[in-house]
Design goal:
CATH class of the largest domain: Alpha Beta
Structural class: alpha/beta
Distance between the termini: 39 Å
Strand content: 15-25%
CATH architecture of the largest domain: Alpha-Beta Barrel
Number of strands: 16
Order of helices and strands: EHEHEHEHEHEHEHEHEHEEEEEEHE
């Protein structure tokens, strides 16, 4: 098989989805599987649906349209606020969209009326992470305006934490979301289908005994795909962390000095890992280059195999040291991925994708802890 490539283990993805769906169902929480990091890959979507995921979320209308063309009939949630220029397409293909802007909501209502459809809207509330969201003080006014719009169904309210500033879900902000839901329902004599508490960042809070109260819906991507929670990158016990891995090929392997020499300036990717300072510039190390770079993946999000250390990356090369396991040209190495690394690798046209249904040589990576049940 060619490299670089993503190896996707559908049975492990099924296990992750089934495990989380069952755990959360026991707390009265439904799951939307957010497939945006996979570009709405149909094989993964079908795997999730077979495991009990009830709806699919995507951030681009193009991906939702592709799912509709492929025959997906479950509710499709546009998790990013619609662009005004795309409201006709949103109404035509997305069952529900997340919203924060009254002008967009008016445009969605007009498009839905013109198309003879009813479009669901989930109002996003700002609870501290400072990405999308209506301020709590403005919610009542927005809800009142939506209820006067024909062809829109208000599905409820939700929030998003952990994505912009890493604000963690906790008893205060999750309690605020539940209280806002109850207050709006009482004020307008409604029952919202959804109180959407957030994303994979909510899972540690729930595992630690957090009371979901009115929260009955989560939008999960990273936990389903990678078996990790995003705030601390820790494995979620009982889930596979290697359901998707990235394989790259060695194109150079040599003993080289541990430090560069010559006058130094900036590189194109100053944020990449850099060579550590070592005593004695004459020290030689086992270095290898892999045919993988910034154009293919987020190098900072790669988790190398044991015995390998990432020393840097450029557009097309990943530089590693492997003193415990010397590499040769033509060898392949398998890396686990952070969400950012997966997102970029899935998007790159230079990274192949293949499906496997067996454990790799390194063995299955599945976490365990009584904390998660």
């Amino acid at each position: 098989m060619s490299a670089p490539r993503l190896e996707i283990n559908l049975p492990k993805l099924h296990h992750n989805a089934r495990t989380l769906v069952r755990r959360l169902a026991a707390q009265g929480i439904a799951v939307t599987g957010v497939s945006k990091a996979t570009l709405g890959m149909l094989e993964i979507v079908h795997t999730w649906l077979g495991a009990g995921v009830g709806s699919i979320g995507e951030s681009r209308i193009e991906a939702i349209e592709a799912l509709v063309r492929s025959g997906i009939t479950v509710p499709l949630l546009l998790v990013r606020s619609p662009m005004l220029s795309q409201v006709d397409r949103v109404v035509a293909s997305a069952s529900i969209s997340c919203n924060t802007d009254i002008d967009v909501l008016n445009a969605l209502a007009a498009a839905a009326k013109q198309q003879g459809r009813c479009h669901g809207v989930l109002l996003m509330v700002e609870l501290g992470d400072l990405r999308e969201g209506i301020l709590p003080a403005d919610l009542e006014s927005v809800v009142q305006q939506i209820l006067a719009m024909s062809n829109l169904q208000l599905m409820g309210i939700g929030t998003n934490l952990g994505c912009q500033h890493g604000i963690a879900p906790n008893v205060e902000n999750m309690g605020d979301l539940s209280r806002l839901t109850t207050a709006l329902e009482q004020r307008f004599h409604l029952t919202f289908p959804w109180c959407s508490g957030g994303n994979s960042a909510n899972l540690p809070w729930l595992a630690d005994g957090g009371d979901p109260a009115r929260i009955n819906h989560l939008r999960l991507g990273e936990a389903l795909l990678l078996g990790r929670e995003p705030l601390h990158r820790t494995a979620i016990p009982g889930l596979h962390t290697d359901a998707i891995s990235l394989v790259a090929e060695v194109i150079e392997a040599k003993h080289k000095p541990s430090q560069p020499w010559g006058e130094r300036g900036r590189t194109s990717f100053d944020g990449s890992p850099t060579a550590p300072r070592r005593e004695g510039s004459s020290q030689r190390v086992q270095r290898a280059l892999l045919a993988l770079g910034e154009q293919d993946v987020d190098p900072a999000g790669l988790i190398p195999p044991l015995g390998t250390v990432i020393r840097g990356a450029s557009s097309d090369h990943l530089v590693v040291e492997s003193p415990g396991q010397p590499l040769a040209v033509g060898d392949e190495q398998r890396y686990q991925l952070s969400y950012s690394a997966l997102l970029r690798a899935m998007t790159s046209p230079f990274v192949d994708r293949c499906f496997v249904d067996h454990d790799v040589v390194d063995g299955s990576c599945i976490a365990s802890s009584a904390r998660w049940g």
